[in-house]
Every structure is written in C-alpha cells, then in structure tokens.
Amino acid sequence: MTDYRKAWPAILLVGPSGCGKTPLGDLLEAKGMGGMCFRHFDFGKILRESVGKGSGLLTDGERIVVREVLERGALLEDEHFPIAGKLLAGFIDEAGKGSDSVIVLNGLPRHIGQAMAIEGTARVRAVVSLDCAADIAWERVNTNAGGDRHGRGDDTMEQVRYRFRIFRQRTAPLLEYYRRCGVPLVSLDVKKETTAGDMLALLEARYPLG
For helices 81-95 and 43-51, what crossing angle results, to 10°? Predict the structure, then answer.
C-alpha cells in the first residue's frame, strides 16, 4: 500500500457543482500541462461507482454510509474520513506505479478537516479556484455545459442550490486555509460558455510551475 511518509504531489480543483472541475480534470489527464503528467482523482465519480460494487476497497458498511451521504447531497464528515482516505490511497497506489504524475484532486478535500487529514497522502502544491456564480452554475448543470452530467439524478435545481450553499459554507474556506499554508492560488473565472479547453489555456498561462 501507499507509503504515507511520502505525500504525493497534487493540485486541488475548488469550485461549486457545475463549474467544470471534472471536464478540466479529465483534460489535464489527457493532455498534461507544462511538461507535467496528471492523473485525475474524481472523488464524486469514485464514490458513486463504489456504491454499486459488491467488492473492492470498501466494506458493505462503508458503502451504506456512502449511499446515505450521496442521497442527502452531504459531505463525508471527519468521522468517516477513513472511507475517503482508503479510496485516495487506492487511487494513488494504482496511478503512481512507475509514474511521476501529479494528482488532480477533484472533490476531496471538501472541507478543512479533510484537508488536514490528507496531508500525509497528497501534498497540495497549487489550488485552482473555478469561480462561478450560483445562477451560472445552475445554467451549466441544466445545459450540461461540461458534458459530464449524463445520468446524474441529483441535478435538480433544489439539489444544485443546496450543494452551492454547502460549498460556500464548508468548501470555500479551503482557499484561505491553503493561502495561510503558503500554497499558490490560481483563480479562473467561469462563465456559462466557458469550456474545459478555455480553462486549461488560462491555467497554463497562470500556473506556478516548479
């Protein structure tokens, strides 16, 4: 398993539901940036897939917890972090074999407690903030602007608004947390028509290499 004495280098994508984190993460993995290779850790997707698996990294009890969290649109709290930690460690074990890739963290950490908990596993070297207003986030979800919302039964307006409130209350404070830790922040303004390619072009121009 993962050697927790050596935290894997990572960048963190932060933004509300619908802002385009998943398309950007996928594009970073597909194309790379600045000579760096990336592996996209899409935590939401991994959680949704884990619920349907009869075997794998999670126990039956852990899958029940995940299912309840997903149904409520809630966050995994600190007492359930071992679930997140297990999935992240498993991903790094697989992605890191024979590789010098940087992990793209998407959906984890989602609050400061999780940020502190992953420090031994993933070392965040930059935070990318996808700045998107609530009405634009809803439009992007409603029109599937990023092309990543197929089959999402939780994309009602009520659920998107709820997730946006949770983002503002619990996840947005990560920006200040990492600023205090001295981690560089790159802000990208996301509009309704902004594509993953647009975001990657801006990121390439602004990302603090090295």
Answer: 110
Is this structure's pTM higher than 0.85?
yes
Higher pLDDT: 97 or 121? It is 121
Q: Which two tokens mark 38?
A: 């990336």
Q: Is residue 210 part of a domain?
A: no
Q: Are 8 and 89 in contact (CB under 8 A)?
A: no
Q: How far apart are CA 100 and CA 38, in angstroms?
A: 9
User: Of 12, 8, 3, nearest to 130 (Cα)?
Assistant: 12
Give me the DSSP letters along 71-136: HHT----GGGHHHHHHHHHHHHHHHTTT--PEEEEES---SHHHHHHTTTTEEEEEEEEEE--HHH
- 171 occurs within a structural domain: yes
Interacting residues of 28 by C-beta distance below 8 A, sequence separation 6+: 38, 40, 104, 200
Strand-by-strand arrangement of the 38-42 sheet: 38-42, 102-106, 8-14, 122-131, 185-189
d(CA 56, CA 6) in angstroms, rounded, equals 24
Residue 147 lies in a domain: yes
Q: How many domains does the chain have?
A: 1
Q: Is the pLDDT of residue 60 over 70?
A: yes
Return d(Cα 85, Cα 68) in angstroms, integer: 18
CB atoms within 10 A of CB 48: 16
Q: Are 10 and 123 in contact (CB under 8 A)?
A: yes
Q: Which of 203, 18, 26, 33 is nearest to 128 (CA)?
A: 203
